[in-house]
Amino acid sequence: MKIVLMEPLGISEETLSELSEALTEKGHTFTAYDTVTTDVDELIARAGDAEVLIIANHPLPGDVIRADENLKLVSVAFVGIDHVDVEACKEKGVKISNTGGYCDDAVAELAIGLTLNCLRNITACDASVQAGGGKAGLQGHELAGKTVGIVGTGAIGCRTAEIFKVFGCNLIGYSRSERPRAKELGIEYMPLKDVMAKADIVSVHTPLTPDTKGLIGAEEIGAMKEGAILVNTSRGPVVDTDALAAALKEGRIKAGIDVFEKDPPLPEDHPLLGAPNLVCTPHVGFDTRESIDRRAIMAFENVTEWMDGNQIRVML
Questions:
Q1: pTM, whole model, 2 decimals?
Q2: pLDDT recorded at residue 82
Q3: How do residues 199-208 score in pLDDT, each as one tens digit?
Q4: What is the pLDDT of residue 156?
Q5: Dihedral angle over CA of 10, 14, 18, 23, nearest 10
Q6: For the chain, what is the radius of gyration of the CA atoms?
Q7: With a cut of 50, which residues of the chain have pLDDT below it?
Q8: Which of 3, 46, 239, 275 would bridge with 248, disulfide CB 3.0–4.6 Å?
């Protein structure tokens, strides 16, 4: 069976060799590409007639999927699969497995970090010290006792809530389905508009789907408390960028943002560039040394389990 790694996974050569040996020792063919491309013709050439493709977070268009007549499985070293043409996979009967869970701690910890930065003005404090200044105008707020709204109570949302709870926060939440784990943590479910209005901190953890695109729009942002904090470590399009930029410029809220419509570098005219009351990171929530190694192990495990007749982490 032919397996192709279409793009680098950010792991060492030693780790890649160890993972691929589990396939080649059983007589399978493994090819790995160490560069990223979005050129469709190049992607088609890389895929060839492989039965299995392993990708990370770069697009796998329908033309590539349809051109590979032997394709049977796509193992996605990522949580979301919105960069894969799922309809093309459905047409061809191609299975999809992801690596859900690989970055739960990483994303949750960044959400907490962005929150603390907004509350304690850490970036602004650093800038002041570096410029020879002091603490004037930089008094912060405590996290303990704050009400945190978790939007999207899946694995990452619940892990984030768990950490906020340790800080002594009150938990409320919104999700399309109520999760037992969320209730165990003490999350009180309520309509989204109520979460936005009651929370001191809103942390967004919903996947990007047609239903969640623009979920946090002008109305929802407008309902937030004066001085509340919006943290988004999920997907950029879940939050209306223009509405967020307007609220930040008005000084009504603060925000910690890790995700955008497209990954940075951002275009010079992007609404959030230069916006006040904002802390940004360049989509690094998932990206820790531990999580990247973990997702690679899981991506290869998807392949070996599927070959044994047991598809795991099933997305399609």
A1: 0.90
A2: 87
A3: 999 999 998 8
A4: 96
A5: 70
A6: 21
A7: none
A8: 275
28 C-beta neighbours (distance < 10 Å), count: 17
Query: At residue 162, what are phi and psi to the nearest 5 degrees?
Result: -60, -40
Q: Which two tokens stand for residue 171?
A: 């938990």
**Rounded CA gap, 213 and 233, in Å?**
14
Q: Which residue has the tokens 């050129």?
A: 39
In this structure, what token pair is assigned to residue 165? 């709870």
Residue position matching structure tokens 């209730």: 183
SS3 per-residue string spanning the chain: CEEEECCCCCCCHHHHHHHHHHHHCCCCEEEECCCCCCCHHHHHHHHCCCCEEEECCCCECHHHHHHCCCCCEEEECCCCCCCECHHHHHHHCCEEECCCCCCHHHHHHHHHHHHHHHHHCHHHHHHHHHCCCCCCCCCCCCCCCCEEEEECCCHHHHHHHHHHHHCCCEEEEECCCCCHHHHHCCCEECCHHHHHHHCCEEEECCCCCCCCCCCECHHHHHCCCCCCEEEECCCHHHECHHHHHHHHHHCCCEEEECCCCCCCCCCCCCCCCCCCCEEECCCCCCCCHHHHHHHHHHHHHHHHHHHCCCCCCECC
| pLDDT score at 99 | 97
Over the stretch 150-190, which tens digit does the pLDDT of each residue have? 999 999 999 999 999 999 999 999 999 999 999 999 999 99
